[in-house]
Input
Amino acid sequence: MDKPTVAVIGATGAVGQELLSLIALRAFPAKNIRAVASARSAGRTLRVGKNTWRVEALENFDFSDVDIAFFSAGGSISSEWVPRAAAAGALAVDNSNAFRMAPDVPLIVPQVNPEMAPSSWNGRIIANPNCSTIQLVRVLHPIQRLYGIKRIVVATYQAASGGGLRGIDELESDTRRVLAAEPTLPPRRFPAPLAFNAVPMVGDWLDDGCSLEERKLVRETRKIMGVPDLRLTATTVRVPVRNGHSEAVHVECERPVDVAEVTAALRAAPDMAVYGRDDDPPYPTPRMLGDRTKVHVGRIRRNPDAPSELWLWVVADNLWIGAALNAVQIAELVLARSSAEAVHA
Ligand SMILES: NC(=O)c1ccc[n+]([C@@H]2O[C@H](COP(=O)([O-])OP(=O)(O)OC[C@H]3O[C@@H](n4cnc5c(N)ncnc54)[C@H](OP(=O)(O)O)[C@@H]3O)[C@@H](O)[C@H]2O)c1
Output
């Protein structure tokens, strides 16, 4: 196959700019890359790294020449435009919530369920999971294989960048105002002011008392791990961190766990950085994260009172691991599979 033409929808946003950056950094084999956003940004020059693009408006955009379309412009845009891109023959990799639970749409984390990737890409839709789900399943997968999992309890500590560019702006301006003892503005992107705070509601508040983010974590983890009745419960919290989601993960396993064995299995898992007490630093923190291409795991410990129960601290870059990098890795996986298929045909 010739090199694909790629379009990034939502190119001016937090995830879209990381997509453009990663396509260049990973030397993704693209013939042409088009940056697409709302009519507000049409004609604007967008600079990411050493490259510049003239932004095109989605409302006039023709997908017939596009081979791969990465969507990161929100759920309502995806609901309308992802099927159009697929109908025009493109592989549509969607970062929004719009298609994740659709039974006929694969929800893929390449390090966990690569077998779900199609071997031909024309007209296919693939959903990219929610940011907090991706880092969680990356860690649960090796533990499930070692011991089997009975139940998971998660608390998340989610960064402002999960709310896009407006989320980062709101955290920064609120922080400046508090430090300057100026009156703060009413929150817009988050349900409560984020500076020097912790907000236990990420996404809409649902009728059953959970938040939408908590529901996504449960449903998406079940789908990706192929365990429809997996017992998982979560509290998702927004914290005043610029970028990088953290999770405190409690796993009750089917059998007693051995911390050295868990540590070795996580070290052997793809793209994982594992920390112990003797390391420097001894555990990951979002502000000092280091390698953005890895999931970082520390504080691995057994509950002293329950030998089948494990605690872990998991940190990852939500814009890369949780969105743009996972999306690019999905496209790389599909391209590799379709090339292998063509060789065998
Ligand atoms: N941030 C994260 O950590 C994260 C992680 C996983 C998934 N996601 C998902 O990724 C998507 C984008 O999130 P984000 O954080 O990048 O948001 P963002 O920073 O607010 O960016 C939104 C992007 O969507 C574009 N857009 C808005 N309205 C549009 C329209 N009518 N037509 C075309 N483009 C339009 C914006 O273009 P303009 O600049 O022209 O307005 C901008 O490029 C969302 O679905 C989000 O749920 C985000």
Remarks:
- The chain has a mean pLDDT of 96.
- Helices lie at 14-25, 75-87, 131-147, 164-179, 212-225, 259-268, 320-344.
- Residues 10-16, 37-38, 40-41, 58, 72-75, 77, 95-96, 131, 161-162, 164-166, 318-319, 322-323 surround NAP (CB under 6 Å).
- The two ends are 13 Å apart (CA to CA).
